[in-house]
């Protein structure tokens, strides 16, 4: 009998639904929310309202593209957290009602676990390229920066994480200071390709063990711009490419320094990248350079699996379904949690 999992993701501002059949992805539908661009960041109340409008048509489209009837589903997997509570509640409530109406199990998925498990999404006709356990995963997004030791889909240990801001958050805020718009990550990435990464030097923190910090970098960047703008009010306009390239290079150096230490400390050479910032061109290039220099076997996700998506929730749900790990109808959403 086939195992068919419907995945639902609604942790932030993307409403997504995906269908996986026997471990293979059949559909992955994502509806974004352009409304936040005018505010320079995600507005939680607007995000939850948009999820309410999007959830039904997105699930309908995912089932349609997969050519699956809802009666064929084996279980519904959903993002339980972490994330924005209002956004999560839309997906959690829909998943509970949908699963109950069909009389099938519910599977709760940790959003961060889903990002890591995106490396195990398979599609028909493609040769799978999956890391072997144990492996290290650098998870970098707007809200998280973590180095994770992955021993199994249900056995992950955080070796280091940010003690303040995440890498993606720092990039977004620096972009906002430069007046470049939102989301800042893709804008900085595009400009950085045209700039000199050695043009300017910004502060790098000295944090013990394998943890990260990016608040000092933001402050250093802000003060640097303040001083330069006093001398030349058009400094940002004249040097935005070099600023973007130097900022990106600094963030990448901070991330890769701790990842190198983790790989050496745990004697692991299978290294994966995950999260929204994994779409960054500079970070991907640094991964390839480290693979050549240190003999790492690296795993870089497809761009479609870097941002929040339901495929990563569905594949995690598929593994949990095989082990019969379900959750009750009373399982609440949570906004903050460790892996």
Q: Gist?
A:
By secondary structure, the chain is α/β, with parallel strands linked by helices.
Description:
The protein has 339 residues and is of the alpha/beta class. The protein has nine helices and ten strands. The strands form two sheets. It has a five-stranded mixed beta sheet with strand order 3-2-1-4-5, sandwiched between helices. A five-stranded mixed beta sheet has the order 8-7-6-9-10, with helices on both faces. A hairpin with a 2-residue loop joins strand 2 and strand 3. Helix 4 (167-177) crosses helix 5, helix 5 crosses helix 7 (235-266) and helix 6 packs antiparallel against helix 7. The mean pLDDT is 93.
Question: Which keywords apply here?
Answer:
Nucleotidyltransferase, domain 5; 5-stranded mixed sheet; 10 strands; 2 domains; alpha/beta; 339 residues; 42% helix; 9 helices
